[in-house]
């Protein structure tokens, strides 16, 4: 691999890492859905105000008729899931069941990013020292 290709690869890795970090942080700052209690969410489903709901591991995400996003916390008992599921099937609300995701890729990336940046800076510094005369 020649010198220009290595330098291009190094800069590509540095810039793509920075862009990936900015993209990740930007997603964290998106508008959070309005919080509801479980009883209020159940009442809205029964009143047919909700057009879609997503049941996650410990939360419930709802989309109402005006496309506003709402969320509610679910406790660990199965009775709350049964209640919301029964109300949604009774009213014809679209139900999405989302399995729990581990997110190992993001965890690995966040843990490895400081080391990648450190090695990138070290490689850059060593290349600059070699190029000097």
Describe the protein in words.
- The chain has 133 residues and is of the alpha/beta class.
- The protein has a domain of 72 residues: 2-Layer Sandwich (Signal recognition particle alu RNA binding heterodimer, srp9/1), CATH 3.30.720.
- Helix content is 58%, strand content 18%.
- The chain is built from 4 helices and 5 strands, in the order αβαβββαβα.
- It has a 5-stranded mixed beta sheet, with helices on one face.
- β3 and β4 form a beta hairpin.
- The two termini are 23 Å apart.
Keywords:
133 residues, alpha/beta, Signal recognition particle alu RNA binding heterodimer, srp9/1, 5-stranded mixed beta sheet, 4 helices, 58% helix, 18% strand
Produce the secondary structure layout.
Blueprint: H1 3-28, E1 34-36, H2 38-46, E2 50-55, E3 59-64, E4 69-73, H3 78-91, E5 94-97, H4 104-131
Parallel strand pairs: 1-4, 2-5
Antiparallel strand pairs: 2-3, 3-4
CATH class category label of the domain at 30-101: Alpha Beta
Which word captures the global form?
rod-shaped
Low-confidence stretches: none
The main pleated sheet reads as: 5 strands, mixed
**Secondary structure category:** alpha/beta
Helix content: 55-70%
CATH architecture of the domain at 30-101: 2-Layer Sandwich
Strand content: 15-25%
**Any idea what the radius of gyration is?**
24 Å
The chain-level mean pLDDT equals 84
Order of helices and strands: HEHEEEHEH
Number of strands: 5
Quick structural summary:
This protein is α/β, with parallel strands linked by helices and 133 residues long. It has a domain at 30-101: Signal recognition particle alu RNA binding heterodimer, srp9/1 (2-Layer Sandwich). The protein contains 4 helices and 5 strands; from the N terminus they run αβαβββαβα.
